[in-house]
């Protein structure tokens, strides 16, 4: 039986993080990030980063 095709991101070689807004898994080294109290929040895109800033009452330009 053939194995199914693997995604281009391999969980065993590329550290992944979940987007703080939509929970999409993205490679940690390319994910936009923001410092939050006691942790770093990661995002799949600048759009999710801006949504997070809006939800938390922060100006996206103040990053």
**Strand line-up in the sheet with most strands:** 1-2
Ranges where pLDDT stays below 50 over 5 or more residues in a row are 1-5
Proportion of residues in extended strands: 15-25%
Mean pLDDT: 81
Helix count from the secondary structure assignment: 1
**Secondary-structure element string:** EEEEH
State the major sheet.
Answer: 2 strands, antiparallel
Can you describe this structure in just a few lines?
This protein is an alpha+beta fold.
Walk me through what this model shows.
With 63 residues, this protein is α+β, with helices and mostly antiparallel strands. It has a domain of 43 residues: Roll (Ribosomal Protein L24e, Chain: T), CATH 2.30.170. It is 16% helix and 22% strand. The chain is built from one helix and four strands. The protein has a two-stranded antiparallel sheet. The chain has a two-stranded antiparallel sheet with strand order 3-4. A hairpin with a 2-residue loop joins strand 3 and strand 4. The protein is globular and about 35 Å long. It starts with 15 loop residues before the first strand and ends in an 8-residue tail after the last helix.
């Amino acid at each position: 039986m053939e194995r199914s095709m693997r995604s281009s991101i391999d969980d065993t070689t590329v550290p992944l993080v979940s987007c703080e807004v939509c929970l999409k898994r993205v490679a940690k080294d390319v994910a936009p990030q923001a410092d939050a109290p006691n942790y770093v929040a990661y995002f799949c895109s600048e759009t999710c980063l801006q949504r997070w800033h809006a939800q938390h009452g922060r100006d996206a330009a103040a990053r």
